[in-house]
């Protein structure tokens, strides 16, 4: 899940979060069942059509969010080219792009609080057993919230590097990005401690 917000409201915003997440799970499983690059390309075209139903502004925002995949797709292409497995590489790249585009569509059209509510519902059997699920619910929220934030900061670091050097961006931004992520994590930890940490009363079912 890459992006977090949509610049416009679409029909998908009105679909319940549970329905979208269930459909995402089924669609992702279906993508892994496909092996042919041709069928995976058709699946990607279907995903693109789904994104376009939100309008051009929405589609442009979704496309920008997926730009962070380009280095990974390039790495996959190079590796499979070197190992003479071009067809397999195409299948992996198309599957990855389709799955993440779908996940991005869901996160862009679903409020974070709704996602956490779905996670809480799915974990309710564990609460009946007396187990605390607060940490896991919070983890879901933090992953969804901070993945796009870290990606955005990585983009800013890359732009800063290009402004100061003629060389291409590479490993040089890894350490600054890691330091930024750790700094964000420390701020979140401090905020949690200030609010009593995870020692909150679990709702009874």
From TrEMBL:
Recorded family membership: Belongs to the CbiQ family.
Protein's organism: Mameliella alba
Keyword Oxidoreductase part of the UniProt annotation: no
Name this polypeptide is given: Putative ABC transporter, inner membrane subunit
Keyword list, A-Z: Membrane, Transmembrane, Transmembrane helix
Membrane topology: Multi-pass membrane protein
Keyword RNA-binding: no
Membrane spanning stretches: 40-58, 65-82, 88-106
GO cellular component: plasma membrane
Subcellular location(s) per record: Membrane
Primary location: membrane
């Amino acid at each position: 899940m890459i992006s977090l917000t949509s610049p416009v409201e679409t029909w998908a915003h009105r679909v319940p979060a549970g329905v979208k997440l269930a459909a995402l799970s089924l669609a992702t499983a279906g993508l892994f069942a496909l092996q042919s690059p041709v069928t995976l390309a058709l699946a990607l075209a279907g995903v693109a059509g789904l994104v376009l139903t939100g309008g051009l502004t929405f589609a442009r925002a979704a496309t920008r969010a997926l730009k962070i995949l380009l280095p990974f797709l390039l790495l996959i292409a190079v590796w499979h080219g070197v190992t003479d497995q071009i067809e397999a590489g195409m299948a992996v790249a198309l599957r990855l792009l389709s799955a993440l585009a779908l996940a991005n569509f869901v996160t862009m059209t679903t409020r974070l609080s709704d996602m956490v509510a779905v996670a809480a519902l799915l974990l309710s059997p564990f609460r009946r057993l007396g187990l605390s699920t607060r940490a896991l619910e919070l983890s879901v929220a933090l992953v969804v919230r901070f993945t796009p934030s870290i990606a955005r900061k990585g983009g800013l670091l890359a732009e800063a590097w290009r402004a100061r050097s003629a060389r291409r961006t590479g490993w040089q931004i890894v350490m600054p990005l890691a330091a930024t992520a750790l700094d964000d994590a420390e701020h979140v930890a401090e905020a949690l401690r200030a609010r009593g940490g995870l020692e909150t009363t679990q709702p009874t079912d």
